[in-house]
Amino acid sequence: MGWFTARSHFPTKLNLVRDLAKFPELCFLDRFDILIPFLFGTSIYLFGTLLEIFFPHLGTNGLQMLVWAFFISTMFLYHGTYTINSLAHQIGSQRYETQDGSRNSFSLAIITLGEGWHNNHHYYPASARQGFYWWELDLTYYLLIVLSWIGLVWDIKPVPPRVRDARRSGTALAA
């Protein structure tokens, strides 16, 4: 995880994600990235304290909620991220030549709800779908589709068939 938390990787390279700069709220969150975790951790602690006061029979408290709902869940999230960004460049198969060593791994995709289709993602990062074919299980993408049905998510970018079926050499296609 050292490479992931190195200071040199903290500044966002807006020239690589130009669409991020279009949204002031995303720029704010990028600049003050500690704010949301701090507010979430504080809220969870206060919620646990309220449960302890008003529902003591539940046997929980603020510290217990903070440890389980914030620290342990965050640890699993970070380790999932580190695993993909490390192991998905070591194990699996390469459908597309991306010049970065990224690979697709069914087992990593199962563990991380679709992130294991890392070679697909590096080849065409503009798509919300990382499992390009029906047999590449991508639970995160399926959740996004359900959220789009109820109006919470929109403009989901699919993988164009011409991109998915191309097996040309070179760098990832432009979005």
Mean pLDDT over all positions: 89
Number of domains: 2
Helix content bin: 40-55%
- Overall geometry: globular
Please give a structural write-up.
The structure is a single chain. By secondary structure, the chain is mostly helical. The chain folds into two domains: 13-87, no CATH class; 106-164, no CATH class. 49% of the residues lie in helices and 0% in strands. It contains eight helices and no strands. Helix 3 runs antiparallel to helix 4. It is globular, with a radius of gyration of 19 Å. Mean pLDDT is 89; it is low at 169-175.
Question: What is the gist of this entry?
Answer:
Helix content is 49%, strand content 0%.
Key structural traits:
single chain
What is the strand and helix layout of this fold?
Blueprint: H1 2-5, H2 24-31, H3 35-54, H4 62-87, H5 106-111, H6 118-123, H7 139-149, H8 161-164
Helix pairs in contact: 3-4
